[in-house]
Amino acid sequence: MSRSSQTQVAVLGGLSVEPMTAYALREAIRDVLGHFWSESFGQIYPTLQALEDAGHVERRGGARARSSVFAITESGTARLIELLNEPVQESPPRNGLLLRLFFGRVLGRDRCRELLRSARDAASSQLAEYERLLAGLQAAEGDTPDWPFIRMTVLAGIHHARASVAWADECLDTLQGEQ
Fold first, then answer.
1. Of 89 and 25, more confident
2. Sign for the pseudo-dihedral over CA of 42, 13, 76, 21
3. Per the database record, which ranges form the Transcription regulator PadR N-terminal domain (predicted)?
4. I need a surface site. Which of 43, 57, 63, 135 has the fewest CB within 10 A?
């Protein structure tokens, strides 16, 4: 799936929840999807325009994108389903921490320990944030039809954060044993 197709998924998916302004859509993508998906805000407005030109969204209100409310159309829902059914295309991983640890002999054990402690602290903070998010969403949205799917994405964050904490601890133990 191309980058522009993935942007269409984020935009159409957001509008499938409720009609909103381009600004509100941008905020929803950042605040809600941002836990597992990043989207270039510079792509949202052109994507909205292209989707409008194709008849997949309709503009309600003013002529300016920022003041208009956009709503997904029937053809937009069909397009979203089409895009969601395409195979998932993973991006090649780029992890600066792992790159540094791979060359840790050159970097030095002390600096590697610092990096691992920092990664563990960040993962612990993420874990706490995801657990708060899950509890809050469960109380507020536990009865909506979207709830099982929202829960799955938050659980992925929880499991990833737990794994990151455990990995960092194991690596720190490894370095501790090799003084």
1. 25
2. negative
3. 11-80
4. 63
